[in-house]
Design a protein that fits this description.
AB_hydrolase_1; two-stranded antiparallel sheet; 2 domains; hydrolase activity; Rossmann fold; AB_hydrolase_fold; AB hydrolase-1 domain-containing protein
Length: 336
């Protein structure tokens, strides 16, 4: 059973699944900081009615990677909300991505700038995230959020960096997809695309995997042409120029200082995909394990995990395994 109510710039959806109501608030107005969805567990509003402040609801922020969007986390966030109905989950489109691509942002477009955007958003919403989950580029964004501000981040805060290291980005070997080459290839395509199939074929011909090609074309939307009704072209939902800058920053940004000197109250979890398309160098693994030894405080620390039977796209390749890992961070009721 489903119901929905939509207003000019705000939509609320409620879906009844296993007797648990999930509330989804979606804001894409260009006047905001970033486009986002707020997925709330079924008991959030009930708890808000009795707590001192509705903004004290335990909140997790889910961050996508380069060329992704908040939709990458949609079904996974709903699953989390069903299992942990006292939590709410903030999904954002990072700058230059998804619906945030239409929101004007001053450069340079960097990991730090993307992190500051998210910090501004949670501050505007008056939320205090207890969990940060970032995939790939989003992993460094999460670390940068911890690096830049004590507030509005709460303590304790748990950070999950999914298939990404704090420092140098080491691409995979031959036969594997390389994001930098993908961005360069897409930048050479015309702004108006006549057929999704043509783009998919071109990507495969260039040596990119079919899975990546199919994922890329999901970022095409019908163009708003006012000309002939027979014109059914497509355009990209993202800003490739901004994304190219962001990926360069991703390659260059070094956040080892956060990992090797973890702030009190912060627990950083690294999750390596067993079949990662990135190279996890031995020296990176050794530094993370050394950081594990240094972090002795119970409310602060570093942990290393390996997600079996998964490539880089962890939430798609092994959602059950990922859910099991992340669930550890939601099995507590934070004290405010």
């Amino acid at each position: 059973m489903k119901s929905s109510r939509c207003y000019r710039r705000f939509c609320t959806h409620m879906a009844l699944v296993d007797d648990r109501v999930i509330h989804l608030s979606s804001v894409t107005t260009s006047k905001g900081v970033l486009a986002y969805d707020l997925v709330q567990g079924g008991l959030v509003r009930q708890a808000s009615a009795t707590d001192k402040s509705p903004n004290d609801v335990p909140t997790a922020v889910l961050l996508h990677g380069i060329l992704g969007s908040r939709k990458n986390w949609g079904s996974f966030a709903k699953r989390l909300a069903q299992e942990f109905p006292l939590w709410q989950f903030l999904l954002v489109d990072l700058r230059s991505h998804g619906d945030s691509a239409s929101i004007s942002k001053r450069g340079p477009h960097t990991v730090a700038a993307a992190a500051l955007d998210v910090l501004k958003l949670v501050g505007q919403l008056k939320l205090t995230p207890r969990v940060l989950v970032g995939h790939s580029f989003g992993g460094k964004v999460a670390l940068s959020m911890v690096d830049q501000a004590a507030k509005p981040l709460a303590r304790p805060v748990r950070v999950w960096v999914l298939d990404s290291t704090p420092g140098k980005v080491r691409p995979g070997g031959s036969g594997e997809d390389h994001p930098g080459e993908l961005i360069e290839f897409l930048s050479k395509l015309p702004r108006e695309i006549s057929s999704k199939q043509e783009v998919l074929n071109s990507l495969v011909q260039q040596g990119f995997s079919m899975d990546v090609a199919r994922w890329v074309v999901t970022n095409l939307r019908p163009s708003n042409n006012t000309g002939s009704l027979s014109s059914r072209g497509f355009s990209w939902v993202f800003d490739l120029k901004g994304i190219a800058e962001m990926f360069k920053s991703y390659e260059e940004t070094n956040l080892w200082k956060i990992v090797e000197n973890v702030p009190r109250g912060v627990h950083v979890n690294f999750l390596k995909a067993e079949r990662s398309l990135h190279r996890w160098a031995l020296e990176d693994l050794q530094r993370i394990h050394a950081a594990e030894e240094l972090a002795s405080d119970e409310s602060a620390g570093v942990e290393m995990h390996v997600l079996e039977d998964a490539g880089h796209w962890v939430q798609a390749d092994n959602p059950d395994g990922l859910f099991k890992f992340l669930s550890k961070s939601f099995r507590f009721r934070p004290q405010f």
